[in-house]
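Record 1 of the preview.
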Amino acid sequence: MAGPAIRYWEFAKVISKHHEVTLATKGTCDIDHPDFEVVSLNNRSLSNLIGGQDVLIAQSITPGIARLARSHHVKLLVDAYDPIPLETLEAYADEDPRIQIQKSRASVLKLRLWLHFADAILCATERQRDLWLGSMMALNLIAPSDYFADKSFRNRIDVVSFGLPSQDPSKTGPGFRETLRIEPDWPMAIWAGGIWNWLDPLTPIRAIAELKRSGMTAALVFMGIKRPAPAFTPMDMAGRAISLAKELDLYDKQVFFNQGWVPYEERQNYLLQADLGVSAHLDHLETRFSFRTRILDYIWTTIPIVATEGDAMADIVQSEGLGFTVPYQDGSGFAQRMKDLLSAPDRLEETKANLRRIRASYTWEKVCEPLLLLIDLHTEAKPRPLSSAATTAAVSYYPRIAREVVQTTGWRSLLRYFFIEAGLFMKKMSGRIIRRG
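->
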């Protein structure tokens, strides 16, 4: 599982202790859980599924889903932990300018839609909360009635961070030292996640080369290149990272790339063998509002961290003594901070103690407390009235999204998309006809 799937799997585990839960995926799913139902929307109609629920939590919605939910009095909690409009700018940075504009407009259009229709919004950090509050204010969505009901406005938007398991990690199988045959006496740094275009794997690779020149031999392992989704292709930055490792004569010698994807339930086997956890990114808007979920796995397995400055998790690394932060694209600084930790056993142990201290604050049970409060609050609340601007957002959605779908995946995908949306609309209308007799 990648980040979003991990998040909802863990949400379901926590929420199912208090409510009946159905976890739905648009793809196939080969795992289940004794405490909640797991369904694939390939085999089950979303319209049939929504009708039996009180609350729907989703990362994105369409007008069809929004209208169907309202017709069944289902409350919508939209999860904005990933600032997709800013991520989109980076994801298509190398594309034709026309595609960049189209993708950016489409992502903002989707943002407007779910801001209008959401009964409540989740985000991962206080920075993100400020971003979405500003967006809501610009759309005139901070209504006096909502404000005076709760002047903190946390009844409409609250922080539900990413989390980590409450149980201590334990090794149950081989890790990269065995599978990649890394020398047992080499310090090993791990990049625990995918390589996306908005990240900076090049700086840690240059740091490994810098350490080599200074006389320290260390290994760097990138945990995964290709996600298991069939349609996924590695991003350009992954190719650039591999090319740089080969150029520096480090590829499969000191810098290793796991070409597959580590199973979620086995990740501790690889993390527990690491001496350092690294995270690096570039200086742009996505960084400021991001939440680097891989940092939490480092906290869980008490791996000291070296990370680029600038994001919310880097602030925590620095303030809580979990390792070091480094300026953007500073390979020499990155190498020096890695060396500072690896060559000072007392500092390394102090850092591990800080990691053990803070991890209780990030268990899934802890971070989901605001989510459980929002579920209870909005289950009992009356439906919020929709403004004319919400209808406008829904109406303007289709022609723009149609253009994006055609441009990205062709006419057949467009016909399939609108067939699904028409089905949601007809389901809603048939319900009205039946009720009116």
